[in-house]
Amino acid sequence: MKNTTHIVFPQGFLWGGATAANQFEGGYNEEGKGLSTADVITAGTHTTSRRITPVLEEGVNYPSHEAIDFFHRYQEDIRLFAEMGFKVFRMSIAWSRIFPNGDDAEPNEQGLQFYDRVFAELKKYNIEPLVTISHYEAPFHLTQKYNGWSDRRVVDFYVRYCEVLFNRYKDVVKYWLTFNEINILTLSFGAFMAGAMMPEGNGELAHATVKDEQVLYQALHHQFIASAKAVKLGHEINKDFKIGCMIAYMCSYPLTCHPDDVLLAQQKDNMSNFLCSDVQVRGAYPGFAKRYFRDHNIQINMQEEDENILKEGRVDFYTFSYYSSTCVSADPNQEKVGGNLSMGLKNPHLKASAWDWQIDPQGLRWSLNNIYNRYEIPLMVVENGLGAVDTVEEDGSINDDYRIDYLKQHIEQMKEAIADGVELIGYTPWGCIDLVSAGTGEMKKRYGFIYVDKDNEGNGTLARSRKKSFHWYKNVIETNGEQLD
Known about the structure:
globular; hydrolase; 485 residues
């Protein structure tokens, strides 16, 4: 549909970028930090070459241990974000930096002081922090002693962690997200990454899953309860807090107009996307989930107060990641392609990235409308970007026009969604500075506006340099999305 009106982003729109502690912070054992689930995953070039090693091995590359060393370079990095004009910076706090074992009686003061310094640096440049409380990182001790989120006791450990954060940073952080991509827990290797549960298999990350859906959905329920309790607690500590959910939005089209394909696409949208957000936004399990549980003999162990907890802990806004779209079909013989921690079917009308993720800017508009029409609460796109191999030219320049083109097209579709009536309040492209890929463990798969000199083997100076997209995005922010060329 042709755009016939001049569309503008609202004043005060939150332009910025997104990161996660386990992928860029480093300092994995400094100043009292404990071992996290991310700290025991080895490096690799593909998911299948990565392993989970409960005991750290000598001579093995664990990418989270140094990552890109934000722990020591946060002032330089935040200065670069400020140069681009960031209004908001999405980051996560490493749970194991605050509670090294997760079930500790008292928090680690040195860890709290590190984030004191980070928030002070952000405030110096008037950059609003958007803090993810749990982002694919939990104290590994919780995995070893409790099997992670499968144990209800972890809810209390998480809420205590939130209470410390909310009280400590109540005057410097306004925007919070309870769990990153909470819906990933039941998919792929999310049982370990998102659920901190010890997986089945031989230690390969690609096969690090829990096959028992009863265990998976019970663990997910515990995260729902933890999130709701955190929302209620946060509002009690500071009524101005805005606390949101974060969903890995998996945009899926029916491959054909056959009713079987159309119904299957709806069912995937429901269980993959809307189950989690219905619980977190509406405060109750939807009917389609209850049917799924009946059909698959899943019994959610709910305590007497749980329904009320979910109602009282509804989030204030909805955030999500969007990278690509896939198709679904009842025909099992169709060609499959990759995606953000998920698989789908190839769409013959789309091109794909070097990692076989299909590029679909219009799918972002469709997703924004689909979400907003259901909930009518403020939305933020907190992850979006193109993973690509960048080439450093002889003069040091990095001409990532392919990244600019990808982001430009997606921003154009965000404009269209705003014209459609969607209340979109912010945009934080993923990996605003190059960091370690969560799925593959690579540095080669780069997303950033800022290049970091480090390779897959962990070699490099860690020096930062501006890519062409750095200057482009700076202009986008300066013009509030008016100039995209």
